[in-house]
Queue: 3 jobs
Job 1
Amino acid sequence: MTVRVRYAPSPTGLQHIGSVRTALFNYLFARAHAGVFVLRIEDTDRDRYSADALQDIYDTFDWLGFRWDEGPDCGGEFGPYIQSERAEHYTRYAQHLVDAGHAYYAYDTQEELAAQREAADGRGGYDRRFRDMSEADLAPYRDRGIDPVIRFKSPMDGTTTLTDIVLGSMSWENTDLPADPILVKSDGMPTYHLANVVDDHLMEITHILRAQEWIPSAPLHLQLYDRFGWTPPQYCHLPMVVGEDGQKLSKRHGATRVLEFRERGYLPEAIINYLARVGWSYDDKRELFTLTELESLFAAEKISKSPAVFDYQKLDWLNGHYIREATDERLFDALLPYLRSSAATTGVGDDAVADTLRAAVPLVRERLKTLGEIGEAIGFAFSRPDGFDITEMVPKKLSAAETVALVEKVVPLLDGIAERSDEENEALFRETAERLDTKLGNLLMPLRIAVTGSRVSPPLFGSIRLVGTDETQARVTRALDRLRAYSATNP
Ligand code: GLU
C-alpha cells in the first residue's frame, strides 16, 4: 500500500508556524515512506475565503522549497484538488447517507434553532426533530420555503474510539458529542467534516497528520467513515505549538506568519530545520538536519505528545548556523535584497551596493543572525558615521588627551592601509603598540570607532578595506578633530 498523506489548508488565514509545521511533517512522512504528499485546498467556507490567503500558501512553500506531489497547480489522478470544484462529490455522498437512513433533511428556521440553543442552556443542543419524521409529517415543513440542511444521524448511545499513532486510544461517550451535526449547509455547500472525510477517502489518504486542535472532529469523522462503510485512515495528531507562557502561539509571541520570517531575513533551511524539531526529535541531542536528511530520518513514533514551545533563540542560532554554512555566492544573493532595501544604502547606486557586499560577505558571515542585519552591519561602508558619541573612542583607563596622542600615532599607519594584507597590518599595529608601551586594543578600538562608528563591527582591517584608504584617513582625521575638541574641555 502506498502511503498517501495530505496537507489540507483552508484559505482563511495566512500560513503560520503551526500550519507549516503540519505541512512539513506530512511531506517528511511521505518521503520517509516513499509515499505521496497531496495539497488539497479546503475552501468550502466561502464567508471566510480569502484570495490572499490562497496565494500565501503558494508563496510560502515556493520560498521554503518543499513541494507536494499532487495538488491544484501540478494536478494528479485524484483531482480536482480544490474543494469548491468538487461539489458534486459531496452532494452525491450526502445523498447516499440520506438514502441509507444515516442522514436527513432538516427544515428548522434560524429562530427555531436559536430557541433550541437557549433551551439547551447555550450548550448548542439540537432537538433532532426531523430525524425520524414520517413523510406525511414532513410535508408541511417542505412547504415552508426553507432551504433545508442535511444532518447526520449521530449515534445516541455507545462510545466512539480513536486510535492515534502518537496519542494512543481516546474514547468519547456518543451522548457527549454534538447532536446530529450538519453535513450540507442550506446553500448546498458541504461542511468541513463531510468534505474532509469524502475527500480523504476518494484521494486514498492513508494517514492524517494534523494539529491536535482537530481531535474534537475525529469522532464524527470516524462515525462518517463507519456509515459510509469505508476504512478510516490512520490518525496522527500533532502537538500544539505554544509560546513560552504555554499559550497557543499567536501574534503576541512575535512573528507567526511564516513569510514574515523571510522578511526578517531567515533562511528557508533554518525554518525547515527549526520546524522539524517543533514536536519531533531524532534523539535527544541532534539539532541540525537538512531537508534531505529529514526525508529519510523522520519517523512518526518520535512525535511528542506534549505541546512544543516555540523558541526564537534557537531559531536565531540555527539561522546563524545556515548563514555561516552558505557559500559566498549563496549568501551574496540572499543578502543583496536586504541590503538594497536597507536605509543604509538609500541613494547608493546598485552596482556600488553589490560591489561592497561582495567584499563584505566573508567579513559578516560569522556574525549575522539574520539577513536583515546586513544594513546595520556594514552601513558604515556607505556613509560616514558622524553621529557616534566621541567619548566611546576613549579606552578604559586612558584620558581623552592620552587617546588623542595615541590616535595621532595611528595616523601615519593609515597610509596604504586598505591595500595591505591583514597580517601586515596586524604586525604593524602590534609593533607600534609595543613601541608605545600600550595595549594593541588601545590603538585598534579608537580606530574601529572612528571608521565604523561602533564598538562592534566586522573585523577591523576588513572593514577598513570596505571603506578604502582615503576615506579611512578622512574619517580618522575628523574623529581626531572631535576628540581634540572634547579633550580641550575634558582633559
Ligand atoms: N481544512 C482544515 C484546516 O484548515 C484541515 C484539517 C484537517 O487536516 O483535517 O486545517
Note: The pocket of glutamic acid is lined by residues 8-10, 42, 196, 210, 214 (CB under 6 Å).
Job 2
Amino acid sequence: MGLIVQKFGGTSVADLERIRYVAKRVGKTYDQGNDVIVILSAMAGVTDRLIDMAAQIAESPEKRELDVLLATGEQTTAALLAITLKDMNYPAISMLGHQAKLVTDCTFGNARILEIGAGTIIDLIEKRNIVVVAGFQGCDINGNITTLGRGGSDTSAVAIASALKADICEIYTDVDGIYTADPNICKKARKINTISYDEMLNMASLGAKVLQIRSVGFAKKYNVPIHVRSSFSEEEGTMVVSEDSGMEQLVVSAVTHDKNQARITLRKVHDQPGVAAKIFSPIAETGIVVDMIIQNTRAEGQTDLTFTVPKEDFSAAMEIERKVAGKIGAEDVLGDKNIAKVSVVGVGMKNHSGVASIMFNTLARENINIMMISTSEIRISCVIEEKYTELAVRVLHTAFGLDKED
Ligand code: ADP
Ligand code: ASP
Ligand code: MG
C-alpha cells in the first residue's frame, strides 16, 4: 500500500472503451488500498488536430490562445475518466492544471514548472478520493493557462509524484517498456529492465520520445522512481532509477532517432570574428533551440555555416536568417526539412575507441550519406536523409550487437 501516480498517454485514453479500461485499472490499484493520483494526456491525435485547426486560421496563432486551445484535450479526458470512475462508484474528482496548483513560468507552449501547491491534492487524497489531473497544463502567476511542450504529461506526472512524495510514478503507454531502439521501427530491439536517469536523459534528448526529457530531469533531481509500462498488458516494464553499480554498462546501449529536425545553411559567410554571434543571437532571442552546428571553410575568407533546429521552428528560423543574411552579406540561405538524426548512446563509450568508425562504416555500407556529425563522450549523432531513418536504426542496432536473439 502506498501513494501511486499513474499517467496514461494518448493511445491509452484514445476512446471511451480505453477510458473504461483505464478506470478499471485505476480502480484495481485503489481497491488494493493504495492512494491513487491519475494524470492523463489528451486522446491520441487530438493535440495534433487542435494545432492543425489553429494553423488553418493563422500562420502563427497567438501562443497564449493556442495554450487555451490545447489544454482542452486534457480537460476532456480528465473529465471523462472522472465520470467513468464515479459511474463505477469510485470517489473520483477531476482537476485542471490551475486547480492542482501547478504553477509554471510564462513561456506559452513550452512552460517550465516552478512549483506545485500539493495541499489541495493531499486533502482530497486523505479523504480517499481518486484525483484525476489533466496533464500537460499549468498556469502562470497571472492565471494564464500554459502548456508544457509536446509529451508534457510525463512531466506533469513526475512533478506531481515528486511534490507528493509518491512511492512510484507509473507511465502507461503503448509499448511495454523502454527498448534499445524504438520497437515500432526496429523489431529486434530489446526491452531494458532497468535504466539509469542519466542514460534515459541521453536517449530522450536524442529523440526517444517514450519519456519527455524534462520528466526524466525532474525524476533525477528529486529521485522519483519511474516505471514505464504498457496500458495494454499487466507485464512489468522498465524501471528508470538512479545509477546502480550493478547495471550493465554496454559500449553502445541504444540507438535513437529524431525526425523532428530541420537544417539551415548560410552560404558564403565572411570568415571573421563576430559573424557567428550575429547569426545565432537573434535565433536564441526567440527561444529557438539550435542543436548541431558545422562550419566549412571555403577559399577567399568565406565559410558555409549549417545548423539544425526543431522542425516546428523551421519557418521562423528561416525568416530570421534571411534577414541576417542581408545584413552580414551572406550569399544565400538554404533550408531542408527532410533530414533526421540517428544516434548511438552508451555510458561505456567513454572508455572505448572505434565506435565512430563502426557507425560510419555501417552507414556507408548501406550507401547512406552523412550530412553532419556531432559527438560527446557518451554518444555519436549523424544527420542523414529522413527517408533512410528506419534502415539506419536497424543496421546500427545490429552492428553494435544489440539485436535480441530469435
Ligand atoms: P504516449 O502517448 O503514451 O505518451 P508516446 O507516443 O509519447 O506515448 O511514446 C511512446 C512511443 O515512444 C512508442 O510508441 C515508441 O514508438 C516511441 N519510442 C521511441 N523510442 C523508444 C524506445 N527506445 N523505447 C520505447 N519506445 C520508444
Ligand atoms: N497531449 C500532449 C501531446 O500530445 C501532451 C502529452 O500527450 O503528453 O503532446
Ligand atoms: Mg508521450
Note: The chain has a mean pLDDT of 94.
Job 3
Amino acid sequence: MEKGNQIYEGKAKILYETEDPNLVIQYFKDDATAFNAQKKGTVADKGVMNNKISAKVFEFLQAEGIPTHFVEMLNEREMLVKRVEILQVEVIIRNIAAGSICRNLGVKEGLKFYEPVLEFCYKNDDFGDPLINSAHILAMELGTREEIAIIENYTYKINELMSRFFANLNLDLVDFKLEFGRCNGEIVLADEISPDTCRLWETGTGRKLDKDRFRHDLGNIEEAYQEVLERVSK
Ligand code: TMP
C-alpha cells in the first residue's frame, strides 16, 4: 500500500492517505506526552510496540464481534485502517481507581470499583480534554443520542472482553481510553489500544506496565511495554 499525503499528525501517531480513499495508514511515533503535553519525551521503539500491541487487541476484539477500523499490520510501525470520522469524544472506562479520578474525587488508588465507571471527555487539547456528560455531547452536537447508546454498549462489552483477555496474560486492566469513528453510517472502534491508552497492572504484584511509568518517572518504560508485547504475542 503506497503512502500518500499526510492527513493528520497527533501526539503519538501520524495518518497518511493511500491510493484507496477509504483506507489510511496509521504510523506510530516514539513520542510520548503526559498531562496535556506539559511533559514530553520519547520512548525507544514505543511506536513499534504500540503498533503490534494495538494490532493484537483489535484482532481479538474484531473476532469477538466489535467493529474496528483495523485492517492489517503493514510493517513494524504502520497499520492499515479504515478512514473514519473521529468523534471528538474520548471514552474512558475504569475498573480500579487510578490517575485523574483519584485526583478529582479523592478515591484511593487501587480501589476496586463496585461497577465500572464510564466517563466521557471532550477531545480538545486547548481545554485539557475536560470531563463531559451525554448532555454536553448532545448540546455540542459531538454525537447523537443513538451514537451515545451504541458507544456505551460497545465500551462495556469491550471492557468485559479486554479484562478477560488481559487477565489471561496475568494483567489487571485498571482503566483505558477509547475513541470511536463514523464509517459508512456505522460506529467503529478507532485510534489505538496500547499501554499508552490502558493502565495495566501485573496481577498479584500490582507492578505498573503502562504509560504511568513515563508520567511519573518510574523508570524501565521500554521494558514495561516490551513485557506487554511479549504477553499479548504468546
Ligand atoms: P486518567 O486517569 O489520566 O484520566 O486516564 C484514564 C485512562 O485513559 C488511562 O488508561 C490513560 C488513558 N488516557 C489516554 O489514553 N489519553 C489521555 O489523554 C488521557 C488523559 C488518558
Note: Residues 92, 98-101, 129, 175-177, 196-199 surround thymidine-5'-phosphate (CB under 6 Å).
